[in-house]
Structure formats: C-alpha cells, structure tokens
Give the backbone structure.
Amino acid sequence: MNKRFAEQRAVVIGAGIGGLAAAAALANHFGQVVVLERDELPADARPRPGAAQTRHLHVLLSGGAAALAELFPGFHTQLVAVGAQRADAGADAHFELAGAPKLPRRELNIYTWQLSRPLLEAVLREQLRKRENVQLRELSRVIGIVADESNRAAGVRFESREGKHDELNSTLVIDASGRGVPTLDFLKATGRPTPAETAVSADLTYGTTVYSFPAGAEPDFKQAWVHGKAPEQGRAGFLVKRENGLWDAVLAGRLGDVPPTEDNAYLAFADSLPTEAIGIALRRGRREAPIVRFGYAQSRWRHFADVAGFPAGLLPLGDAVCSTNPVFGQGMTVAAKEAVILHRLLAKAEGNSDSLESIGPVFLKQMEELVKVPWSGTTALDLAYPQTKGERPADMQQRSEYQVGVMKLAAVDPDVHRLMVEVRHLVKPAHLLHAPDLQQRVRALLQHPAASS
Ligand SMILES: Cc1cc2nc3c(=O)[nH]c(=O)nc-3n(C[C@H](O)[C@H](O)[C@H](O)COP(=O)(O)OP(=O)(O)OC[C@H]3O[C@@H](n4cnc5c(N)ncnc54)[C@H](O)[C@@H]3O)c2cc1C
C-alpha cells in the first residue's frame, strides 16, 4: 500500500459501477475507503431506484471487463461462476446497421460479458465487502461536499439511514453520483466556474423486457443489435442472452416514437425493425417480465479538465463527467477504465513525489481523452437525424462515409473487422482506424466499390 495515503481516508459518492470500481482502485492506496450510497445495497441482485437504468439491458464490453479484472482479481472467473454469458463479438453476434454492409459471423476472440446489471453490481459489492479497508454504507445520501479553509474538498456531509446529518472528512472525494450534482454544487459554493457542457440530443425511448426460449427455439446468436438507417429509420432492437437462461430484449424508438408495452403491439414494433432477426426470435420465445420504458434524452459531456482552479481533493468520474447514448453499451466500460486511470496514477505517486494536487489535473485530462471515442461514435449516430440538437462537426459527412467504408472493408477483411470491434469495446485506440494504409484502402473502396479486397 502507498505509505503516503495509508493513514488517510477516501470517500466515494455513489455505489454504481463507477463508484464500486473507484473504491477498488482506492483500496489499494488509502487506509480507509468509504462508499456512501443513497439506495439500499442488497446482498442479492436487484435493480435500484437510485440508478433507474439498472432495470434495463446492460452489456459489459471487453475493455470494461479487462479494467474491472485489473481492480478485482479473479473477476472473469467470478463472472463465469455467476452464470454470465461470454459472447464472441463476431461469431455470436448478429450485428446489423441498416444501409451498411452486414458483417459476417466470424470468431474475433473479443468478448462481450452478458449479465444483468444488478448481478454485476452484486458481484463487485461482494468482492469489496471482503476488503478490510472498504466500507459500503447504504441509505447514506450525500448532501454536500465540505470545503476546508483553503477551499479544497475536505470531506462530505451526508444524511444517514436514521435521517441524521453527519460529516466525514477525507483526503479525496470521488463523485461517482451519476448526475454529478455534488461536484457542481461544490464548484458554485466555493465561487468557482462550472464546466462547459457539450450536449447532443438522443430522444431515445427503451421498451425493455425479458424473454425465455423453449428448448430448441433459442436464437442462433447470443446477441443481436439491429439499428435503422438514419434519417429515415429511427428504430433499433437488441436481444442479449444473459444468466439464468434468460434474454434481455429492448426495442427502442426515437423522437417520440415510443415502444408499446402491450404484447402484440410490442411484437409488431419488433417486426417493423429494418431486419427481421429480432422479430422472428421474439415470436418463438415467452415474455417473462413486464415491458418497462426508459427515456434517454441526451448525451452530455462536462469538461471539468478546463475548469480553472478545479478544487484539489475532488475528482468526478463516470456519468458525472460524461454520459453517452447507451446504444453501444460503453458507459460502464468508460467508468471502469477511469477507475483504472486513477489506480495507475496513485500507484505512480507511490514511487515519486506526486501529490493528490498534481494527480487531479492529469486524471481529468486523461478522462477527457478516454471519452472522446464513445462520444464521437454515439453522437455521430444521433446527429445523422436532422431533428437532433447539437453541434455537427464540419466534416460530419466525410466521417460518416469513412465509417461506412470501414464497415465495408470489415465485411471482407477479418483483421479490419476485429480492429473495428476492438475500438468499439475500448480495447484499442481509435486512431488505429485512421492509420495511413487503412485510410488508403477505405478511400479506394469508396471510389471503386467493386475493388473490395
Ligand atoms: C437505458 C440504459 C442502458 C444502458 N446500457 C448500458 C450497457 O449496455 N453497457 C454499459 O456499459 N453502459 C450502459 N449504460 C450506461 C451505464 O448505465 C452508465 O454509464 C453507468 O452506470 C455509469 O456509472 P456511474 O457509476 O457513473 O453512475 P450510476 O450507475 O448512475 O451510479 C450512480 C450512483 O450514485 C448514487 N447517488 C447519486 N447521488 C447520490 C448522493 N447524493 N449520495 C449518495 N449516492 C448517490 C445513485 O443512487 C447511484 O447508485 C446504459 C445506460 C442507460 C440509461
């Protein structure tokens, strides 16, 4: 353990994926880590009201699983033990973006981990409860971050389960509250500027349920992702196998096109997707849960790295910093990778004289780099609809053509297919998709579509 922080306490606001991952990172370096969560934290796997999205389909991408494995030793083995499904992102995936070439089913050895979000949280909580220096305090709502005489963050004020107000001092506060209200309030209360925000509307509504399939009727894929061609088609569908022989189903509409919650209408909505795979599958299965809706209004990115005089002793992460349209399932992966950044910076501080003050700006900067990939990928999809509100990059048309070119190449070249998926799973950096030789091949393909190899 880092001697510099061994006598000190870190506080984490929120026990979502970002908060749990951050707690694991901090536990390697701080004498005590306290996670304050406003919800109850059950021993079993149940959705929580504080994070309403926990009722809806969540997949864990390869980059996220690797990050969590770095923070939670034995993580992959634990996932297998609880019945998570491991799906090859090529061979087990039915992936269709209408208007783009269909990708063949081929083994890529890049895996999506498919388990319900409450089960994933339960796995992480169980591991954290085994760490002596970590406390998970449920029914504890943070009501403010406390400043010291130099206006740095020095702890939190919270309402305990008994309804009492209390304070906890700490050297570091991590805001993993999803909405980031504690950080914004603290910046205002201490007379600092709040961060600039970039927003792109999504106006997406999920209709989520759970299916089972009788023996012999299971789909021949483990995950299906079907998305309409913008701007004519706004509908999408996802069907994903997870633990207990169950499948999470989502039908999604945009711009007021709301998926129905009645059986026949739901199936008709599935039939209206640009391709038939999900509709056919659902008609062979049995619905096991009510159809529930979730509205996702907009992707939002707060540029904390640019806030002059950002307070020492406070770091926001996860959705508190950037929330992207969940269509590619990248949010938990981003949060887990941010916790790994934190862990590595703290580990580096052990060997030199870096202080928490100097780690903060580096952390915020590295997060800013990390979220660029999910941000540009998901907002590109949203901005293709003319009604979408948000700033369109000047080269949007070229970007979108290039993307289609990469998909065309991926259809015929397994290496490009793998690279494309590795970038989406946040395993490899996006600039590799713009390497000069690849750019040349994509351009040649777009100019002479027949020469596709
Ligand atoms: C419909 C939907 C589907 C999604 N699907 C996927 C997917 O397939 N894959 C994926 O990777 N991501 C997905 N995401 C994104 C993912 O849910 C988020 O990116 C991820 O949960 C971010 O984690 P977080 O810890 O930052 O925030 P959250 O998970 O929202 O956790 C925040 C926590 O803080 C607590 N909290 C808030 N305020 C306080 C307070 N004052 N005091 C104490 N506790 C507080 C909340 O109760 C909550 O538990 C999806 C999102 C949505 C909306």
Q: What stands out?
A: The chain has twelve helices and 19 strands. The two ends are 53 Å apart (CA to CA).
